[in-house]
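Protein folding task:
====================
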Amino acid sequence: MAKVAERHGSTVRQIALAWLLASSTVALLAENMGAGSITLTPDDLSDLACP
């Protein structure tokens, strides 16, 4: 993913989001847009952190 991000002058996170948007159906896109209304707590972020 880093190779693609470098090619586009963007971050890996931006590429991950762009990939998600490009590979989603309209129904999934609407569902994924709901992520904008989620506020993760510090405990959430800790639980989601990669080891």
User: Anything to note?
Assistant: Residues 6 and 12 are 8 Å apart (CA to CA). The two ends are 19 Å apart (CA to CA). Helices lie at 2-8, 12-23, 26-33, 42-48. The mean pLDDT is 89.
